[in-house]
Amino acid sequence: MKHLQGKPHELPGNRQSLGSYAARHFSYRVEAGVALISLNRPERKNPLTFDSYAELRDLFRNLVYAADVKAVVLTGEGGNFCSGGDVHDIIGPLTQLDMPGLLTFTRMTGDVIKAMRACPQPIVAAIDGICAGAGALLALGSDMRLGTARSKTAFLFARVGLAGCDMGACAMLPRMIGQGRASELLMTGRAMAGEEAERWGFFNRLCDPDTLVVEATKLAQDLAAGPSFAHGMTKKMLQQEWNMGVDEAIEAEAQAQAICMATNDFHRAYHAFVAKQKPVFEGD
User: Fold this and answer.
1) How buried is residue 196: exposed, middle or buried, by Cβ count under 10 Å (0-12/13-18/19+)?
2) Side-chain-facing half-sphere of 30: CA atoms under 13 Å
3) What is the radius of gyration, based on Cα positions, of the chain?
4) 144-147/123-127 β-pairing
5) Residue 15's Cα: distance from chain center in Å?
6) What are the distances in angstroms from CA 178 to CA 133, 181, 206, 237?
7) How far apart are CA 73 and CA 241, in angstroms?
């Protein structure tokens, strides 16, 4: 497994600039505070490899310290999102590994989702065409999902003799679409069409394929223009409160909100309101 190959410029306090990061296994660019990550093996429907898994993990880990990235769009090229693990580069070699090697791999893939959930930036997945296997988990690990009517999302693990409990699926999917629906998708491996995915709450909304990435980027830009520190706190609370009772959640939110009230963005919003102006947030 390889570590992050880019050399982001170090800023005081370990804050980094990832705008010039040179990705090796997918395309990456930052514009106006939005990082666009695009899986770019369209001839194979954008499958993941050992190296792309590891680079995604390391990139999302580094986004915790990225001063210039306020939101992320995750998508795929060529009319598909991601077809999952590459049959030749991953599935074949896995059949040759011993148990310690297999566990190292499954922990590494789970670490991609952990890194996505831990990075403070909102992640918007733009999903067209095939979204299968580990690709469906990348979508599930995102904060918001825009899809198309022609998209097909499938948790394929049962079809290759594996359990549906992969990369956090059994924790996240029932919370999103319900226990019964999640059980059906994880046990049958059938594809969920775009309109069904929207109806079940997997997609926030459907878009035309030609405007999908544009609309996802616009959503990410709107989020990036907002109070990014506060957005990060909301994301953190949404994650942490899965394992809390109501009383503990209320106390945790009291502490989180008090921290946000001490930010400059909160004061900017107040003074803009008094002046009848639109606040300009800076994320501090």
Assistant:
1) middle
2) 18
3) 19
4) parallel
5) 21
6) 19, 6, 20, 21
7) 25
Of 120, 129, 159, 166, residue with least CA distance to 39: 129
DSSP state string for 193-250: EHHHHHHTTSSSEE--GGGHHHHHHHHHHHHHTS-HHHHHHHHHHHHHGGG--HHHHH
Please give the structure tokens belonging to residue 5: 């190959």
53 close to 112: Cβ distance less than 8 angstroms = yes
Encoded tokens for 241: 């409160």
Regarding beta strands 16-17 and 9-10, do their DSSP bridges make them parallel or antiparallel, or are they unpaired?
A: antiparallel
Between CA 169 and CA 133 the distance in angstroms is: 10
Cβ(272)–Cβ(279) below 8 Å: yes
38-95 confidence digits (pLDDT tens): 999 999 999 999 999 999 999 999 999 998 999 999 999 999 999 998 888 888 888 8
The residues, ordered by sequence, that sit 6+ positions from 4 with a Cβ below 8 Å of its Cβ are: 55, 58, 59, 61, 62
Asked if 66 contacts 16 with a C-beta cutoff of 8 angstroms, the reply is yes
> In this predicted model, what pLDDT tens digit does every residue of 122-180 receive, in sequence order?
999 999 999 999 999 999 999 999 999 999 999 999 988 889 999 999 999 999 999 99
